């Protein structure tokens, strides 16, 4: 089993660590790094998946890669990235609760500034429900959201990269 997932563990861990580093650097630069960290995730996730699949194909599997192998290695890669990201962001918020409150206040301020636009698009009831949800938001909610937005594009990129790199023995 380690034969199939060795590169996934390596590049998934690397991607997760880079994601946490990005979150830390962005937290130092802006009051709410969550949205910018999602953009970084759209960059690091496909790169990590590509490297894991390419490394698996070239160095572990004698130059061959089936679609199923690509999907399996890619799945493990993006799940490790997401797991490390969720645990790391949650831990950062646990260690620095004032930082979580700053992020939460920033999200509430964005809602307040966009009140009229949001109400015109989705209605007052939806706006009130969203605001209530933001008030109840916990550090785990933000961490899970970040993890989900590593998994969703990870699946998409894994499909594409697995098709591109696929090479079966004749």
Structure in words:
This is DUF4199 domain-containing protein. InterPro entries: DUF4199. The chain is 88% helix and 0% strand. The chain has seven helices and no strands. The model has no long low-confidence stretch (mean pLDDT 94).
In short:
The protein is an all-alpha fold and 170 residues long.
List keywords for this structure.
DUF4199; transmembrane; 170 residues; membrane; DUF4199 domain-containing protein; single chain
Secondary structure layout:
Blueprint (H helix, E strand, L loop, with lengths): L1 H28 L4 H27 L6 H29 L1 H17 L1 H8 L1 H13 L2 H27 L5
Helix pairs in contact: 1-2, 1-3, 2-3, 2-7, 3-4, 3-7, 4-6, 5-6
Number of helices: 7
Major β-sheet, in short? none
Radius of gyration equals 19 Å
Q: Give helix % range.
A: over 70%
Helix-strand category: mainly alpha
Strand content: under 5%
Number of domains: 1
Series of secondary-structure elements, N-terminal to C-terminal = HHHHHHH
Runs in which pLDDT lies below 50 for 5 or more consecutive residues are none
What's the β-strand tally? 0
Mean pLDDT over all positions: 94
**How far do the termini sit from each other?**
24 Å
Shape: elongated
């Amino acid at each position: 089993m380690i034969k199939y997932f060795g590169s996934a563990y390596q590049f998934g861990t690397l991607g997760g660590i880079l994601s946490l580093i990005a979150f830390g650097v962005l937290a130092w630069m802006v009051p709410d790094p969550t949205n910018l960290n999602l953009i970084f995730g759209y960059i690091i996730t496909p790169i990590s998946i590509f490297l894991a699949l390419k490394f698996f194909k070239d160095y572990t599997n004698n130059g061959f890669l089936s679609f199923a192998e690509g999907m399996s290695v890619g799945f493990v890669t993006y799940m490790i990235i997401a797991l490390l990201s969720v645990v790391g962001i949650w831990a950062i918020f646990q260690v620095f609760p004032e930082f979580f409150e700053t992020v939460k206040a920033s999200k509430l301020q964005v809602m307040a500034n966009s009140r009229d636009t949001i109400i015109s698009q989705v209605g007052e009831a939806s706006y009130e429900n969203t605001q209530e949800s933001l008030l109840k938001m916990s550090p785990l909610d933000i961490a899970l959201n970040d993890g989900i937005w590593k998994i969703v594009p990870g699946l998409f990129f894994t499909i594409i990269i697995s098709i591109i790199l696929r090479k079966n023995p004749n």
